Structure formats: structure tokens, C-alpha cells
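Handoff note, outgoing to incoming analyst
You'll be picking up this chain. Sequence as last confirmed:
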Amino acid sequence: MKKKYVIAALLSAVAVIFSMTGCSKVSLSADSSSGSDSYSVSSSSSADAAASHAFTYSMVPPYDGVPSVKINDDKPFFDKSALTLEPFENYSKRDELGRCGAAYANVCRELMPTETRGVIGSIHPTGWHTVKYAGIEGNYLYNRCHLIAYRLTGENDNEDNLITGTRYMNVDGMQPYETQVSEYVESTGHHVHYRATPVFFDDDLLARGVLIEAQSVEDDKIHFCRFCYNVQPGIIIDYSDGSSNGPEFVGSDAEAPAESKGTSEAAPSRELPVVSPSKESWGNVRTYILNTNTNKFHYPECESVPKIKDKNKEEVEATREEIIAQGYEPCQNCNP
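Most recent structure output, in case you need it:
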């Protein structure tokens, strides 16, 4: 079981820019004086006011086919003089609409999990819909996205750390940065200040994206500031409530269409035939093995399981539907 580190004095010292003590979220309002594409951070306290001088949505270019973009010349908004070696993690309390705010941690080996991740299928963040479309790998539009990945701080079903995000944002947008930080900390034993801030407009229940900032403490090998777009190519999303429209999904949950009809991207082709799972596997809780690197899940007896690296292997008790809803795909060898 990992230890929890809450350093109140430290958090007070680093309460700058996106202050963890005064800014529960980044909520944006349209600025009618400068056009519908210009937004500024709403300020309800002096801490929030400081945030408005650091990040505004006008820094984010329109989505143009890439899952994330550099913000502020890729420089995080951290006050470098406040960087510390002391482990800590802090998750903003959800607001009156139930929306998550910024999550901030000093990622280090002490915080990384030593247990396998549990299921989170019972959690429904704001804007959540269980919906499938053709052309999305794994079929499901939305994942339950950890603001700070489980592999970084071991937070599994913390509702203050989970938002509704498209599979595209989760896998193509956020995951590469989470992997970069995880591998760096594991290999060096160093520390990385890491902050993930969901960006909402007005009373929207679905975030427009997540601003991720990271800075390594002992050196400058990790430093980035990226905005990950909460979009899915080919799908129209209503951010006010998370509803959506897109190409109809036809087929079993085991299938991912070979091509996306009416979408801008094609799903990866598959060399192996897709076989429908047995009816007995549906709706039943059983043991599965997850590969957190490839986002595949397997039966424990699958011949692929021994090939999974220990750091990427997780054993869970769940239904097949819950695992798929988390963004995992069935292995094509054992077809769980």
C-alpha cells in the first residue's frame, strides 16, 4: 500500500498560478468584446486572479488534427523556486456541478503504486455517456480519465482525479506524457512536479481539454506544458452535457470496424479474424490481466500474459464490459 503525503506548508508555498488552495477548477467564459474564440479565466479569488495572468484559452490554437499542443513555449507555469523534493499530492475538491479541478503532485517512487489497479466502472464523472461509434479503436467514445495517471501516484477510484475524456485524448493526448514521466522517475529515482488541470467553459459538464505541466526537480530533463484536446476525430461533441453524434456502430463489442464511415480517420486494420466472445463472459465478474502499455486485456491463461512486463501487468476482478469501458481492448489471441 502506498503512503499518502500531504504537506500543508509546502502547498501554501507553491500556491501560485493555478493555486491548489484557491482555484478548484479553470472555468472559462466567453469574452464578447474580443470575439467568440477568445476566453479568459474566471476569477473568484485572488488566487484565481493570479491564474488569469498565467493561462488563457486564447493560448490554445484551434484543433488541427494533433492530439496536443505546446503552451507557453512548452514551459510549465510552476514557480521554480518552490520546487521541492518532498513527496506530495493534492486533488481539488469538485465544484457545485461535480466537476474536477486541478490535480497536483510531486511524482516520485514513494508515490508510485505497488498494487494492481482496481476497476472504476462504477464512477460516472460529469459529462459521462456510455456510447460507441464506428471508427474508434475499442468502439467506446469516452474513457474515465485520471488527471494524474494511476501509474504516477497510485490513485485508482479517487473521484476528484477522474474526468470524462475521449479515448483520443486519453490514449493519444495524455498517455505519452504520463509514460514519459513514469519512465523517467522509475529509471532515475528523481522527482517531477506534475499538474493536470481540466478546462471547462461556463457550466459545461465536459472539459474542452486538459493542461498538463511537468518539471523535473533534480535536472531539466522533464519540462513541458501541453494542452490535450478533449476531441474525437469524426465525432461531434456537445460539451454542455457530453452528448455526441457520429457514425453508427454496428457489430458486437469485440469488433472494431475496419474503416470509419463518414469519419476523418480509419481504424487500424486487423490481420487476425475477430471471434465473438462466449455469452458466458458477458456481465460476469472474473479475473482478467491488463496490459497497461498496450491497453489490451487477457484471460490469465493466455499465452501472451507471460510476455507482459511486470510494470505493465495488472490483475483485476471485473466484468468484460467494465474493462472495455475503461478503454481496454480484448486480446486477439485468447479473445476474452
